[in-house]
Design brief:
The structure is a homodimer. By secondary structure, chain A is mostly helical. Chain A is built from 6 helices and 3 strands, in the order ααβααββαα. Chain A has a domain at 27-115: Arc Repressor Mutant, subunit A. The first copy, chain A, is 63% helix and 8% strand. In chain A, strand 2 (88-92) and strand 3 (100-104) form a beta hairpin. The first copy, chain A, binds a DNA duplex through helix 4.
Chain lengths: 161, 161
DNA sequence: GTGGCGTTCTTGAAGTTTTAACAACGAAGT
DNA sequence: ACTTCGTTGTTAAAACTTCAAGAACGCCAC
């Protein structure tokens, strides 16, 4: 990390500023929209989405955490909260006595179905409606490159950190 | 928000997934790097950067909050923490008795100078080194479009929310 | 100058995330 | 079976953010 630091040039600085600016605003925007319309922050909504797409609407805690890119600890707290809301319930894993499955309840599914259209509309209005199809492809490619460079390979936890 | 919901097509879904994936990983990555090397999360670091670039290394609370895109409440708490660390101090605003200036201390400046090279290197490694110059321009343009659509015009607070 | 209204900033409480530690189980060798 | 080590998920405490409320000041019409 030492040596002569290679600072960002003007173009890079501008891009970095714009990136921070846009991602912050978008995240806040989505959080507020979902908090208002679905009663939960964006990340919690994402957990319900993951569960809804999984076979039998259930996932092992670790797998769900991996998909959502959060720590197991954070997931534990999140599921506790969603359980209190009745959107999710826990279930012992038959094959591994250590394991827990998070299961999307019917009520959780209902909340998801009710809030999904509004959420998609918000994402569309904030992002896709403002970009050309070409830009959508560019964004995907850029994000894929970045994500590839940050993948799991840390020593401490297998997949994060 | 009603009517037939226009769902995301395959390309859009892929882009959205990639976006969430990449931004989450990058944010976590930067937070951890700065927490480790500078003893504060990314957003706090950004506050010090803002102050360091301001005339006389000081800014009104509201202005700083606007620049950093956070609420005044959040900033109040953040500055309280940075003040406890000795990186920042508060100062009454001469022209407006309601106002407060956040001032970057010498010690804060030192922390910034020490951690900046490592931070830039991290940003570079995670982002710019993985993108072509063309992609950097594309990213900036995309982010600018998105940010433009989310600007201040909410009713409640003038500039956020 | 006084009342009314908006702005500036702070505060306490509740909710969320991080960090470190831990209990319980699984896997594999001996 | 026993030991060792890795994995799974949770928890308590500290740190951070959000939310609602409020104190203090500026501005302006009257």
């Amino acid at each position: 990390m030492a040596g002569e630091p290679r600072w960002l040039n003007d173009e890079e600085q501008y891009a970095w500023q714009s990136y921070l600016h846009a991602t912050t605003l978008l995240e806040d925007h989505l959080d507020r929209q979902l908090q208002r319309d679905a009663g939960m922050p964006h990340i919690y909504y994402g957990l319900l989405v993951q569960l809804s797409q999984a076979p039998r609407r259930r996932l092992r805690m670790t797998e769900l955490a991996q998909n959502a890119k959060i720590t197991r600890s954070r997931l534990s707290h999140a599921i506790a909260r969603l359980e209190k809301n009745g959107w999710v319930r826990r279930e012992d894993c038959p094959s591994d006595k250590r394991g827990q499955n998070a299961v999307l309840t019917d009520e959780g599914m209902k909340v998801l179905e009710e809030s999904a259209p509004g959420h998609v509309a918000t994402v569309r209005a904030a992002l896709f409606d403002r970009l050309s199809p070409e830009q959508v492809r560019q964004l995907a490619e850029i994000c894929r490159s970045v994500a590839d460079g940050l993948q799991p390979q840390g020593a401490d936890l297998p997949w994060l950190r």
